[in-house]
């Protein structure tokens, strides 16, 4: 089975409901310019999901959420459940983004709980991993990625793992304009694929798309996406302009 190419836009804490609807419409209008084989995904904030879902209905663009909580329901003020996301028309969910890890106490354990909860409800997890600059400089890139990956997938079956996407996002490249070189990204992602082989065997590891994320733009996307183990992108800043987002997808 060929690996899917998944280009996902993480809108982070940007866009009001009307602005999100406008941007989603622009993405849908341009979606036909991207190769048909590419899965296009956009992740607005929670409050925009239901309105954006209406815009995406019948289009080739899928809806993602930026997080979820691992419990079914109850006294968890401020949190959103998997069932709520499903009811809003969400297909993918970003889990373990470095901003969640850095600012909101996300750990390998909470990532693991969220991945399992998403899969239980039929949501497709986009599992984010990646090293800090200090960790790269200390030669710990592979060790960090292995720890985060094994933490995220602990107790997840091969059949479920096949439904997931991994996003390799070197933290020093996120929102900094400092993109990893194609060699740095390919090297890290080949190692990540090797860890997936250790966990699930080569047949499953070959199916799981591994995205690159970190200052991806239309002018650097093609080189990155041409690499053997780069199967798409998780895009922050550039996803806030339909032209740039689709421009990146065109590089696939
Ligand atoms: C991200 O936050 O997932 C990301 C990759 O951001 P940016 O593209 O802005 O670096």
What does this molecule look like?
Helix 1 (17-30) links the parallel strand 1 and strand 2 (38-43). 45% of the residues are buried. The protein is α/β, with parallel strands linked by helices and 252 residues long. The model has no long low-confidence stretch (mean pLDDT 97). It contains twelve helices and eight strands. The longest helix has 19 residues, at 182-200. The protein has an eight-stranded parallel barrel with strand order 1-2-3-4-5-6-7-8, surrounded by seven helices. Helix 1 runs parallel beside helix 12 (242-250) and helix 11 (218-225) runs parallel beside helix 12 (242-250). The chain has a single domain (5-250), classed as Alpha-Beta Barrel (TIM Barrel), CATH 3.20.20. The radius of gyration is 17 Å and the shape is globular. The structure holds phosphoenolpyruvate (PEP). Phosphoenolpyruvate (PEP) binds next to strand 8.
């Amino acid at each position: 089975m060929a690996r899917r190419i998944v280009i996902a836009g993480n809108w982070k804490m940007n866009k009001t409901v009307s602005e999100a609807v406008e941007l989603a419409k622009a993405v849908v209008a341009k979606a036909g310019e991207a190769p048909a084989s590419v899965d296009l995904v956009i992740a607005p904030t929670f409050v925009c999901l239901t309105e954006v879902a209406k815009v995406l209905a019948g289009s080739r663009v899928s809806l993602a959420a930026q997080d979820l909580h691992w419990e079914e329901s109850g006294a968890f003020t401020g949190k959103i459940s998997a069932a709520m996301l499903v009811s809003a028309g969400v297909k993918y969910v970003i889990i373990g983004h470095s901003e969640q890890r850095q600012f909101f106490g996300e750990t390998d354990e909470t990532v693991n709980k969220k991945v399992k909860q998403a899969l239980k409800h039929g949501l497709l997890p986009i599992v984010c991993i990646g090293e800090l600059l200090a960790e790269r400089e200390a030669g710990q890139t592979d060790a960090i990625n292995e720890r985060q990956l094994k933490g995220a997938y602990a107790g997840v079956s091969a059949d479920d793992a096949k439904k997931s996407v991994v996003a390799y996002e070197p933290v020093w490249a996120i929102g900094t304009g400092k993109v990893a070189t194609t060699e740095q990204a390919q090297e890290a992602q080949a190692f990540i694929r090797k860890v997936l082989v250790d966990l699930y065997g080569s047949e499953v590891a070959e199916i799981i798309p591994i995205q690159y994320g970190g200052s991806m733009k239309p002018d650097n996307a093609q080189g990155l996406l041409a690499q053997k183990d780069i199967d798409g992108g998780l895009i922050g800043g550039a996803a806030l302009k339909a032209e740039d987002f689709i421009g990146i997808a065109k590089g696939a």
